[in-house]
Every structure is written in C-alpha cells, then in structure tokens.
Amino acid sequence: MLKGKKSLILALVMIIAVSLALPAVVQAQWAALPPYNVLWPLWSPALSPGGTPLVTSLTKNTVLPVQPALAWDPLQPAGTGKPWALYNTPTAFGGGLLFFDLYYGLNPWPPSYMVDPVTGAPKPITLPAGWSVLLPTPLKGFEYFIPLANAIYSYQYGVPIASLLTSADIWGVAPLI
Questions:
Q1: What's the pLDDT band for 89 if we cut at 50, 70, 90?
Q2: In sequence order, what are the residues at sequence separation of 6 or more whose Cβ sits closer than 8 angstroms to the Cβ of residue 62?
Q3: Which burial class, exposed, middle or buried, applies to 148 when counting CB atoms under 10 A from its CB (0-12, 13-18, 19+)?
Q4: What burial letters (b/e) apply to 133-145, b meaning 16+ CB within 10 Å?
Q5: Phi then psi for 30, rounded to 5 degrees?
Q6: Which of 33, 58, 65, 112 has the greatest CB tally within 10 Å of its CB?
Q7: Residue 64: which residues within 8 A CB-CB, separation 6 or more?
Q8: Is residue 118 within 8 Å of residue 155, measured between CB atoms?
Q9: Domain range summary for the chain, segments of one domain joined by +
C-alpha cells in the first residue's frame, strides 16, 4: 500500500514538473516575422542559435545566412503540411528570395496572396490564435522534403548541393521516421 502511494506521489510530482516546464519550451518554438507575419521555427540550432531567428524580417530581398531556411505558411492549419524551404536566388538570376513547397515547387517569394494587388506592398496576415504555442513541425518526412527541395534548387540554379543544409544540419540530429 505504501509503495502505491509513493508511486502516485512520484507520478504527480513528475506531471507537475512537466506541466511547468512545457509551456516555456513550447512558447519558445516560434517567432513572427514581419512584414508578412510568417512563422519562423525556433527549435532548430542551425536556424535559430540561442532561440533567436537568424533573420528578423522576411521580404523579397532578405539575404539568408543559411539555406534552406524554414518559414511556415500562416494560412495552413496548425500541424498540417510542411513549412516552406527558403532560398536566395543567385544574383546571376536576378536575386530575390524563393520558397519551395511540395505543391508548387520553387517560386519567387512572397506568394501572390501575401502581396496587395494594387500597391504591390506586403499584405500583413493575422496569425492564428495560439500561434506562439504551436508544437514543432513533426520531423517525419523531412528526410524526404529537405533533400528534394535542395536537389531542385541545386539543379535549377547550379548551386553546389554540399553548400546547403541537410535535415541533420537543421535539427542537429537525423530526423526520426
């Protein structure tokens, strides 16, 4: 009987400890990047060392310090789809930011729905409620998504594939399947 009470107390202490620690961890998962209000993941050591994004604004002319970078389409429901892989177009091709997703391939940033059709200015998007506590994007599938994006970018622009981050580089370990 005493052993059962000790186990119950230990389980309750562990639940309380995890519930206190989890909000801090989850709160630090995402940052909003103006002017388009896309989400930047803060759970990758390569993309956000120290929990700080390597870029603080995402525009057509943002120069990424590492490629690919990742940003989330804020119009996608939480937990669905894949984030965009972001790349810079080499200057020989006119420069500018590109995004890759599995549905539309490699395209100039920003997507048309993020630009005011009259002024051509960035169209801010209201982030969904609770965006700052979204869980990290599941790693399953990234061992396919990132190499595919890198291969298409490398082929299209002649950038050495060895100069691009791999899934293991982005997360510090190879993703789990």
A1: very high
A2: 55, 88, 97
A3: middle
A4: ebeebebeebbeb
A5: -135, 155
A6: 58
A7: 54, 55, 86, 87, 88, 97
A8: no
A9: 29-171
List strand residue ranges (DSSP E) for 66-128, in order. 69-71, 84-88, 97-101, 105-108
Furthest-apart CA atoms within the chain: distance in Å:
75
- Say whether pLDDT at 57 is over 60: yes
* Residue 31, C-beta contacts closer than 8 angstroms, at least 6 positions apart: 39, 40, 42, 48, 53
Distance in angstroms between the alpha carbons of the first and the last residue of the chain = 41
**Chain position carrying tokens 């389980």:** 11
Whole-number Å distance between alpha carbons of 86 and 164: 11
Q: Give the Cα separation of 16 and 22 in Å (integer).
A: 10
Q: Are 25 and 17 in contact (CB under 8 A)?
A: no
- Distance in angstroms (rounded) separating the CA atoms of residues 66 and 140: 22
Burial class (CB in 10 A: 0-12, 13-18, 19+), 98: buried
Report the amino acid identity of residue 5: K
pLDDT digits (tens, 9 = 90+) for 9-31: 544 444 444 444 333 343 447 88
Map residue 154 onto helix, strand or coil.
Answer: helix
